[in-house]
């Protein structure tokens, strides 16, 4: 039974596709409509310049269950993880193939869950004494083009990048694998250091190499904005 699309105005999304077309490299496309059409027609939301793809090949629907791929050509040539499908609920990391074009589905922007990044940071503090009188806390509020994603409590050292080994993992092709490091320097103050990233790290619109963060500073890494917040208990 066909899935009915949902209204994006009621539930914002941050899903996207990474499209690979051989020697043409990869590009990223946000999924922002309740019904995203895919095909060789320039009228499609996602235009695939591939003669092996039908003019109207498929669509991705946002439903109450999640994102659903539907074969609109009904010719058995829509594949998910190399299995032919007519209709399929997509999960993070699924690889779709139409003709000679591969599209990888990512169900969320941004980073791994907050508790994972926090626990990784806290492990680096094991065996270290903490100041019981310390009352300064710091965090990063992460947002992208679709608004707030989540907050990260800052610990003594946190790495930021596209590698899943980073404390703050940004699933963004414009971000380097190890893009930057944020570290505590003294008395609850923090600085951010760029690791010679290709796209650069920006604070309040200025490209930086190393910068002492102030409350309210806006850090731009790829398509992601991280707002630095300090507060006293």
Structure write-up:
With about 230 residues, the protein is mainly β. Helix content is about 5%, strand content about 45%. The strands form four sheets. The protein has a six-stranded antiparallel sheet, with no helix packed on it. A six-stranded antiparallel sheet has the order 13-12-22-21-18-19. A hairpin with a 2-residue loop joins β7 and β8. The radius of gyration is 21 Å and the shape is elongated. The model is unreliable at about 5-15 and about 110-135 (pLDDT under 50).
What's the gist of this structure?
The protein is mainly beta.
Secondary structure layout plus pairing:
Layout: E1 16-20, E2 26-30, E3 35-39, E4 46-47, E5 58-63, E6 66-71, E7 78-80, E8 83-84, E9 87-89, E10 95-98, E11 101-106, H1 114-123, E12 136-144, E13 147-153, E14 157-161, E15 168-169, E16 180-186, E17 189-194, E18 201-203, E19 206-208, E20 210-212, E21 218-221, E22 224-232
Quote the beta fraction.
Answer: over 45%
Report mean pLDDT, rounded to a whole number: 79
Radius of gyration, whole Å: 21 Å
Distance between the termini: 54 Å
| Structural class designation | mainly beta
Helix percentage range: under 10%
> What is the tally of helical segments?
1
Tell how many strands the DSSP assignment holds.
22
SSE order, as H and E? EEEEEEEEEEEHEEEEEEEEEEE
What is the overall silhouette?
elongated
The unreliable regions are: 7-13, 109-134
Which sheet architecture does the biggest sheet show?
6 strands, antiparallel
* Oligomeric category: single chain
């Amino acid at each position: 039974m066909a899935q009915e699309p949902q209204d994006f105005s009621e539930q914002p999304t941050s899903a996207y596709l990474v499209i690979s077309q051989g020697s043409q490299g990869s590009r990223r496309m946000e999924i922002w409509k309740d019904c995203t059409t895919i095909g060789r027609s320039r009228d499609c939301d996602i235009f695939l310049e591939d003669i092996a793809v039908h003019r109207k090949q498929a669509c991705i629907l946002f439903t109450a269950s999640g994102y659903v791929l539907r074969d609109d050509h009904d010719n058995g040539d829509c594949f998910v993880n190399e299995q032919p499908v007519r209709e399929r609920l997509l999960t993070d990391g699924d690889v779709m193939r139409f003709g000679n074009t591969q599209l990888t589905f990512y169900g969320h922007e941004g980073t791994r869950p907050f508790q994972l990044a926090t626990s990784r940071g806290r492990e680096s503090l094991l065996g270290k004494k903490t100041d019981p009188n310390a009352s300064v806390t710091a965090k990063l509020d992460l947002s992208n083009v679709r608004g707030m994603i989540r907050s990260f409590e800052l610990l003594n050292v946190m790495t930021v990048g596209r590698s899943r080994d980073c404390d703050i993992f940004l699933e963004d092709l414009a971000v380097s694998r190890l893009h930057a490091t944020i570290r505590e320097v003294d008395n609850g103050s923090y600085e951010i250091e760029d690791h010679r990233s290709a796209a650069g790290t920006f604070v309040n619109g200025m490209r930086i190499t190393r910068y002492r963060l102030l409350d309210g500073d806006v850090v731009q890494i790829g398509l992601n904005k991280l707002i630095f917040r300090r507060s006293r208990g």
